[in-house]
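Homework help board

Subject: predicted structure for assignment chain

Our instructor gave us this sequence and asked us to write out the predicted structure in token form, then describe one feature. I got the tokens but I'm not sure how to describe them. Can anyone check?
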Amino acid sequence: MFPATLNGKTILFTGLGESSHLTLTAVRIAVRQALGSSLLTKAKTVEILPHFSDDKTVNATIEGTLIGAYSWRKYISAKDNKAVPDKEIFLIAPDKQIFRDAVITCAGVNLARDLVNDNADTVDSSYLENAVRQIIKGQKTFRSTSSTKKN
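My token output:
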């Protein structure tokens, strides 16, 4: 990684190596490492410009951003959380359904991580039911029934 400053903004260039050896996993890892860099710890906004704009590269960049940079912070106090907790991350790419689908998939992965990271006495069947209800709330194609509650 090579940092540069331009007009008071930090620009972080990330090398990906020789293109003949570049994999999508390497892209995901590079994005995750860049976002975890101490140079970006306090940044409130980050713009990411993938090296290519093809669907696979942009999807790998989305996954590296949303899944790779995931952290579970439920029990971290405000004083112990030194980084900006919720950065605004902008990805410079065309607006395509495949990319919106990737964001939704990553949100599902991170929800599953949140559920398994919490305590078992917190994430019980009622908690899971409420989580599902929140997800499908307002969706016309889903209907919820409960084995414990009469609707």
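Reply (TA_rk): Your tokens look well-formed. For the description, you could write something like this. The chain has a mean pLDDT of 84. That's the kind of observation they're looking for.
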